[in-house]
Structures are given as C-alpha cells and as structure tokens.
Design goal:
Number of domains: 2
CATH topology of the largest domain: Neuraminidase
Largest sheet: 4 strands, antiparallel
CATH class of the largest domain: Mainly Beta
Strand content: 25-35%
CATH superfamily of the largest domain: Kelch-type beta propeller
Structural class: mainly beta
Number of strands: 34
CATH architecture of the largest domain: 6 Propeller
Length: 497
C-alpha cells in the first residue's frame, strides 16, 4: 500500500516511468499494489500521486521479485556428485544431446559471412565454455550463467544458463551480429586508432601489425524484429575469472578479457541486467548491457597485462575485489567506480574467492616459475595494508601444481556452512578444502566411476583448460554446480555435512 500526505484529497495514483512486473497492478484510487507477479527479477519504476488540485509528486521505486521456491523433490539429498541429464551445451555426451543454440546458418542464412567470422556454433561451441572462459552464479534465480568466446574462436556474445530450478540448459538470447569490423582500418588511418562503424561496432587496430580488436558488436541488423536491439553490445572475450554476479544490483559484470580475433586485451567493463535475460523469454530475450566508461576509448579498466583477471564478490562491502597482472582494484557497484588499491604483480593462472569471515581475498594458482607471484596468496581486505601475502600452509602442495592435471584456473567457492574454500581442481574425484583460519588443506573423495558418479575432466583445447566460475555455489540449495565440459552434461555436488 502506497500512502501520501498533504495536498487535497482525493489522490489519484499512476505509474510515471518504467513498469510494474507483469501480473501486478496499481489501484489508481487507493495506491494499493495487488496481484501475483508472473516473472522474477528487479523492476525499477516511478509512482506519481496527484491530488484534487492537480498538484503531483513522483517517487522512484524498485521491486525485487524472487523466483518461486524449488520443490524439495527436485534435487537429490544424497552426498556426492549428481549428473544433470540433457545439459551438454554443444550436444554430444552419453545421451547424444543436440546443441542448445542456433545452427551455423543462423540467422536463417541471411548473412553467409557468419561462418568466416568464427560464428559457426557447431564448430566453435567449445570456445564459449572452455578456452579461458568462466561463469557467474545467479543466487536469486538459482542458475549458472555462462558467457564468453573471443580470440580466433567463437565471436557470438549470447548468454546461457544452467537453470537449477528446472535442471535444464537454456539459451537465453541470440548473438549480436559478429560481422562487425573491416579487416584493416580505414586507409590513411594511423595504426592504434579506434574506428566506430555506423552500425555501432567498435574496432581497434594494433599499432604494430594493424591486427583487429573487436571491442563492441552492433545491435541486430540481420532481420526485422530480432534482438539484441541495443546499438552496441560487448564483443565476446576470454573472460578468465572476470565474470561476477552482484546481488544488490542484480547484474552480471565482466571485467576486461581478451577479445577476438587476435587475442588483444580489452580494459572495458560491461554490466548485464539479469532481469532482461530470463528463462521465460528465452531464446528471444533482449539483453540490456551497460558499458562502464567509454568502450571506444578502452579506458575503463586498468589492466596493462590485459589477461588473467581474477575477480570475486565481497558480501561484506557488496563490491568486487579484482586483481589484474599489475594491480589490486575495488569495484563499487553503487557508483560504478573502479579504484586502484595497490600496485603489485601476479601471474595470470589464478582463480580467486573472498573469505567474508576472515576478510581475505584469496588467490590460488600453480606455483609460477617466473618472477610473477602465484601459488596460494591472500590479501587482508579488512584494513589499509593490502599487500599480497604468502601464508605458511599445511597439506596444500596439490594446490601449487600437484597430481591433478594442470591445476591452473581451478574452480573456487566459499562455503559459508563449512567456513572454508571449496576447490574443484579441474579433474578427478577429489574435492579440496582450504581452511583460512589455519591455512590447512584437506580433501574428500566423491565417487568411484568417472562419468557415472563423478564428472568428466576439464578438456584441454589448444593447451588451455580451466574451470573458473563454471563451478558455482547455491547457498539456498547448499549444492555446488559444475559445467566443465561443453560436450558432456553438467553436475551438482551435495557436500557431506
């Protein structure tokens, strides 16, 4: 019920800007909101009240609609790994799943040049899930979001989700037109300059070779009524550990990344409103992307190394801590501002997580053979001393390059019940735990037969592999969710408690 004071009664109520969620109505005479919302998400709108003398006032409001609760029968309660059938994004797997996307001739053969720009989904699908790409877990809607591509591989910038409420893989939206930029800059243009095409593509050219970096795609230009309708959307990138879900803003944020087609880095930050990409509108959702800063200037994110971003949400500050190869930064989502907190060098093989109990930003990667620091590191983010620290650990040799296959880019999540970091090391049936109170590592074995009661290993493509944010945690369901192979089904892990 909305109330007004002052003025002359009777009052009349109306929606000023924005819209209420479908299924909800505002009574013009009483100011009462009534009904049952038919979709979840964050809805922003303004309400106007007008008195008998036509004097009005307006107030901006926001309404969060949670998805319906999951039924207890949906998930198994038995500790261990559980395969989720028919969720192989690229098709295949033991059930010979079809691919969850558009065929190579998307959209309907209207543009025959797509395949030559790395769009062919059947051929390049694995690059979206693998090849240095990560994910983010949407705790409000119980889903693991996946977005990526870049380099000389997949250029589509569409978003996918593993929906834990229905145990299904969903292709949320179609890609923007990836045929965006001329192969070289305009004749006479100095190398290193940026070209923005009339359609909305943002193209940058390397100062030495003239090679191309696609910073932004234009909106849909290939068919009437198709999406995304936005003029410019982000170019697909290798995300590394740079995808983060921010609950307060209900956004997925991507920090930096490596673009297509030549692996040049981007410093830009893009934010996706998750209320615009829901299972209820898939696959025709119209994604609402917002750029932080100016993508044409490629200047929003301070990361000279351009690769290996590690980012983690901090529930205490409701912001994001980020470590690039050259510095530590903090992202404030309320003001959409990035602040450099410390200049220090790390390698680019790490994943990260925030321990909100001890207030540590923890980074874990294979022990580096170079001067760049890797291994197990942490930063005390509770005070002013934000220097990298190397703790004295016990039983953690496997996390520094032990028996698991190439343990770089591991999946890491904070376990609020066990008060520990849970680590999926890309392969095998052993899950590792790190206790930051004592810096002690322990492990637990789940399953005996790979593919039956524990997941397949992360595949290696072109020498690259990793889990990153494809290993998520749902605090409501108390399960860990894993999509680590685009040709095989996803899994969830019920931990022993």
């Amino acid at each position: 019920m909305l109330l007004a004071r002052g003025g002359s009664t009777p009052y009349r109520w109306s929606i000023g800007s924005g819209a209420l969620p479908a299924g909800l109505v505002l009574d013009a005479a009483t100011g009462k909101l009534a009904g049952t919302p038919s979709s979840s998400g964050t809805f922003k709108f303004s309400v106007r009240v007008t008195d008998a003398k036509s004097t009005s006032a307006t107030l901006s409001l926001g309404l969060n609609v949670a998805p319906p609760p999951l039924g207890p029968q949906t998930l198994s309660s038995a500790p261990g790994w559980h395969r989720i059938p028919a969720t192989a994004m690229c098709g295949g797997g033991p059930e010979h799943n079809p691919p969850f996307s558009d065929p190579d001739n998307f959209p309907q053969n209207l543009n025959p040049a797509y395949a030559s720009y790395g769009f062919g989904f059947t051929r390049e699908c694995y690059s979206l899930l693998e090849d240095s790409n990560g994910g983010a877990y949407d705790t409000q809607r119980h889903r693991l979001l996946m977005w990526g591509g870049g380099h000389q591989h997949y250029w589509g910038n569409d978003v996918y989700s593993l929906e834990m409420s229905t145990l299904s893989m969903v292709h949320l939206d179609h890609s923007a037109n990836p045929v965006t930029c001329p192969a070289m800059g305009t004749p006479g243009t100095e190398p290193g300059t940026t070209l923005t095409t009339p359609a909305g593509a943002i193209c940058k050219y390397n100062a030495v070779s003239g090679s191309l970096t696609v910073l932004g795609h234009p909106g849909c230009t290939y068919a009437p009524g198709c999406t995304p309708t936005q003029h410019t959307t982000p170019g697909s990138v290798h995300t590394y550990n740079g995808l983060v879900y921010i609950p307060g803003q209900d956004e997925m944020v991507e920090f930096g990344g490596v673009t297509g087609p030549y692996g040049n880095g981007t410093q830009n930050v893009w934010m996706l409103a998750l209320s615009s990409v829901l299972a209820s509108c898939a696959p025709g959702c119209d994604p609402n992307w917002t750029s932080l800063g100016d993508p044409a200037a490629n200047s929003a994110f301070t990361n000279p190394g351009n690769v290996g971003v590690v980012a983690a949400y901090d529930p205490n500050t409701q912001g994001v801590w980020i470590h690039s190869q050259s510095n530590l930064q903090f992202f404030n989502p309320t003001t959409n501002s990035l602040t450099v907190k410390a200049n220090q060098v790390i390698g680019y093989h790490s994943s990260g997580v925030v321990d909100p109990l001890h207030k540590y930003f923890i980074l874990i990667g294979p022990q580096s053979t170079t001067s760049a620091r890797e291994g197990i590191l942490y930063i005390d983010i509770s005070g002013s001393n934000l220097a990298l620290q190397t703790p004295a650990t016990n039983g953690c040799g496997n996390m520094n390059g032990g028996t698991n296959a190439n343990p770089q880019y591991m999946g890491m999540q904070w376990d609020p019940i066990g008060k520990r970091v849970v680590i999926y090391p890309n392969a095998g049936n052993v899950v590792w735990y790190l206790d930051p109170a004592t810096w002690t590592c322990t492990s637990e074995v789940y399953g005996a037969t790979q593919g039956t009661d524990y997941p397949q290993d992360v595949p290696i493509y072109g020498g690259q592999n990793g889990t990153f944010g494809h290993f998520g945690y749902d605090p409501t369901l108390d399960v860990f969710v894993l999509c680590n192979d685009p040709f095989n089904d996803c899994w969830y892990l019920v931990p022993s408690r």
